[in-house]
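Per reviewer request, we include the raw input and output of the structure prediction for the construct analysed in the revised manuscript.
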Amino acid sequence: MLWGVVVAVLTGGFIAAMGPINAALSERVGAWGMVSLVHLVGLLTAALGLLLFAARGRPVAGGPESRYLLWSAAALLAAALVWLLVGGSLRTAPPYGLVGGVLGVLVVVGTVAAIQRLGVFTALTLVVSSQLVAALLIDGFGWFGQAVVPVTPLRLVGLLSVLIGVALVLRG
């Protein structure tokens, strides 16, 4: 159970970070450039994951994953080419801008792993509550280029009430 809790909490943090990271990238390369790049990086991350599983002797090649990966690669490469043809450039992207694609893959894998270990309700309660904690920190410190939004006593009370609910779910 502990591993499921850790995975769910990390997944919530990744979700909270993904939004502002992708927003910062979008400001520099445009919305469609961001979508193309984030999904291309996600595809490369998923391909690396498949290769690592194959190296451990788990079946991958020839299965439906391989076909989906190839079709996804073709579609995303086409989108990236179109973006480049219309004048897209990575020169203005923030250094952390491409991390959103990696986070997207980790969110999907983490959510599945947490649900398998904890059940849907408990896993998603932890994912959402940790997402809120991370969002409060991102706002409070202005991480990823976000404007600082003060952490007020009312925000803390609201977050505390959510965390009390999480404690009840974990006990139940």
